[in-house]
Structures are given as C-alpha cells and as structure tokens.
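Anyone opening a protein record will find just a pair of labelled lines. The record below illustrates this layout.
***
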Amino acid sequence: MARNNRRTFLKTVSGVLSTSSVGSGIAISKETDNNRQTKPSKLTRNQSEHQHKDRKNKSATSGPSPYPKLSWAMDLNGGMHIADPVLADEMLFLAVTTQNGPVSGKGYVAAHDPVTGNEIWKETDLPAPRTPIVSDGNLYFSTSVWEDFTEGGFFALDADTGERKWSRTDHLVWSDPVVTSDRLFTVKGQALNDEGEVAYALDSETGDTLWTYEDVSSFRQRVSYVDGTVFYRDGTALNAEDGSIVWRVTDENFTLYQTGDKLVYGIRSHPDHQTIEARSMKDGTIRWTAQTNTTDLRSIRLTVIDKTLLFIERTDEDSIITAYKPKSGKQIWQRTSTLPVAGDLVIANKRLLFRSGKWRPRKLTALDAKTGEQAWNHDFPAFLFSGPVIADETAYVGGRYEPVSNYSKSRAFICAIDVTSGERKWSYLIDDLDQRTSWDGEPPAAGTPVLADGRLYTATYPAGSTLDYEYTHLANLIALESTDQQPDTDHRLPGGEPPEACIEASPDPAKTDLDPGDCVILDASCSIDPEGSDLRYQWAVDDEFESYEDCIEVAVPARGEKAVRVWVTDSDGYIDVENITISAN
C-alpha cells in the first residue's frame, strides 16, 4: 500500500538520527566484541559531509525571482512520492518508482540537464529507488521495500554516466547511508526470510563489506557519522574504523534522535513521562536531562537547529514547542501552538518556521527564534504538503489548492513567503500535464521544492491517495525559472484574508444553568468574511462529523463535556475555526 505521508527534505548534508528505544546504563569498550566482524581498511577522520544533516533545516542558494514562470515539465512515467529531486555536479538526479506493489517495486534513476530538462542518462530495471546521495562522482541509494516485497538492495552508480558500479542484493532492506571518503555506513533491515538488523561499513568504491555489527536498530532511520564514530538510534556508538564499540546504552528505554556539538540527544521513556537526555559523544555519559509532559513517543519531535534544541509535543488539538540551550539544557522559552505542528521546523533570519493544522496544514507560522513570540501567521486557501525550504530570505512551500466551488480544478502549487514579514511574494498554480477534467482519486500536490540559481524543481504526486497505482501514474516533474512578469490570475492563488469564525449559543452556557439532556442551539451565521464572500460551514462534535449547516443543536451530556468545533470556509478556500464546549453546570 502506498504511504499517505510525504517525506519532506532538501538534499543538504549533515548528521541526524531518528526514533526507537534504548536505556540508562552504558557499556564502554575499545575491544572487538562477539557481535562484530571486521575487515581492515583505512579511514580518514571527519571526512563525512554528514549527508543527512537535519534535512529539516532546509536552505538553498536561490529560487525564481522576482516571479516564476514555467521553464519545462515532463511526465515521469512513474512517481517520486518516496524520493525528492537532487541537484549536484550541475545535474538534476531523479529517483522514480514505476511499479508499486503488491510484492515488488520497480523504478529507474536518471540524470537531466537542469536548464533544458534533457535526459543525460537513465538506469532502468531497478527496484523502487529512494532519494540518492551524491558523493565523489558516485550516486548511492537504497530501495523501498514493503512487507511482502521480494526485490530490493543497495546500489552505486557512476554519477556522470549512470553505469552501475556495484550493488548489494544479498539483503533487500538497507537504510539510507552516510558516505565518507572511502566507505559508507548503513544498516541491513528486516525483510522476508531475513531477520535482524545489522550495521554495515561498505567500501564506497567496491561495495565490499569492511565490517559488520549485529543487533543495532536504525532501520529506515538515518545513521550518523561524526569525527570517526558512527551513531545509531538505539544508543549504539561504533568506531568507524573497525566497528568496535565506543559506548552503548544497555537498556531498552532510550531512543537516540540527533547528534550535535560534542553531544548526542535522545528520549528516555518512563511510565508516566518522557525525559530528554543529552549524552557525551565521547563516552555516552549523561550531561543533562529535562523532563517533558508527554508519554507517547509517536507524538514528539526533537531536533537541534541553529544552536537551539527544539522539543515538540503534539496532541490532536495543539502542540507545545520548547526551546533549550543544547549544551546546558536550560529552557529558553516555551510556546503553545493553537493547532498541531505538522512536519519539520526551520530556523532562518531569526525566525522559527513551521506548518500547522488539525487535519492537513493550511497555515505557515513564524516565531521569534530567540523569545518564542509569534512574529507572523500566513493563512493559505490550500493545503501545505511540503515543509518550508529557505533561500534568499524566502520560504518556499508546496501543496495543493482545492477550489471550494469546483474540486475538479484542484491544482498543485508553489508559494514564496518573505521570512521576515510573512508576506506572500508570489504563488504559482501548476497546470496538470495529463489534462484531466475530473478526479477519480486525489488531485496532484507539489512536493518539496529544490532550488538553485534562480530555478525551482518539484515533483507532483496525488497526496493522500490510498491507491497504489495513482502514485506511479499521476506524477510529473516541474521546473520553474525567473521572470520579471507576475503569473496571470489563472496561475496564482487567490488573494484576500480568511473569514472570522463565530459561534453564538442559545441558551448561553456561561449565563444559564444547564441540565443533562437540555438542548443548546449553536449558530455560526455570525461568522463574517472581510471580503463579503459566501461562507460554508462544517461542524464536528467530539471529533465526529455533525453537519454542513450554519446551525446545529447539541444535547447536554449526562457526564463530562462535548467539544464542538466549526470550520468556516470562504469562496477562495480560506478557513477559520471556532470551538465551544457544552456540559452540565
């Protein structure tokens, strides 16, 4: 089954980790242990460019300015829902899936001229490729493997010619790698008839195994390399030269999330809360801790950006963002977002940027990165499916515009927002190359923008679709370039301001004693639109759909309370939300 969410990251470089679980005790050793098998090899220290450096902290050279226009577009004859375009060595690399399930994935990797779109080379007959990493003239990538797949592997291609230099198909599942001067680090994951996760160091030129270490956990999570040490999400740190243990957390309640400056950061699980732990890169000893309020690892995010450690606790209704000093753990500020934070956070121009929304994000927010105070909100009459990519003091986001009055005219879009002010610089609605007049499934959305030299590249895909074939049949690659002419009105998001949602209750719960079973009439017709357009309403009671009318009736519950919410939408697609709770006095 195709994934309904979208990885959103730009191809930059670094050293990050993700989630799982491991604990408080530490084993420290310089000796080879029974889990390790090694082959001698030379390693130059600190040669990794940290290919996975917080791909959430996106930055690029420059995008289209002052306005965009279509440069070229192509039908991918496949999809890029599991990969993003990569710009390197004056070429644009594409990893495209052409077949998606049920027991195998197929695809190709190709290089194109980024200016003309002309194909330079194309390597076909591959399992479905993930986003490649370009290093020293080579292209490295693992493949996507679902539960019942029988094909997969790890591949290295010559970046100039596309020639296959080597492949490792002895295992199907491999994590995305970190590449250093003469080797790469990856993890063999579990697949059909191939149990267990094993850390591998491979020769980057030949693919030969240099060493292995069994019993680690970093499947589909990024391995990190810093100064001769490789870190894994389960709290294991290995010597990059020979695979021996540097240190290891020995229980199962700790999850390593990210590396930083001489420290690594993770989360320890307790029965009633989670604790942030900062540990020494050198020996794994705990340097500081901070208690959080959440008990669910699935609802948190931890990242270090621009000398700030950010911890996000998300609920169905809101998110709490807390900023700490990475070296000391001292809390700098804490702020509650009134809507759940979606995806990744970015710091640029002293602003902390993030998307938010209860279902699909429609708002881009900027906080003062130093104080946590809100700097601006930018409401969209559209859904945001990519996190912000920063270039030239501008945040670029991609998504899908769905006209309220005519869903069949839904289109992918890219928008540029001034980072300092939050003002929209431009927007561009992308024409559907397939020229469809109606949608059997989900319309196209724009994925993560990739920027360079006044140009922007994005792949479209049917975001949210539950049909596998749509991801490989309804996808295109779009290239925009700079122009002095603003896009015409048919290629711009509608302007304007969002409506102001309002609920009037009769009788008023704040002024009337209510008994169980009493009825309260809730009326949203008091909502207004600054531009006078017609409004549409959608009600939910305790997160269950209730009505599209402007007025509903709610019975007072015998116990507890009922949470009522109304979404008010104007003719351009802008939305505002109002809430009220009903309970017996």
User: Anything to note?
Assistant: Residues 1-24, 28-34, 38-59 have pLDDT under 50 and may be disordered. Residues 504-583 form a domain with the Immunoglobulin-like fold (CATH 2.60.40.10). The two ends are 48 Å apart (CA to CA).
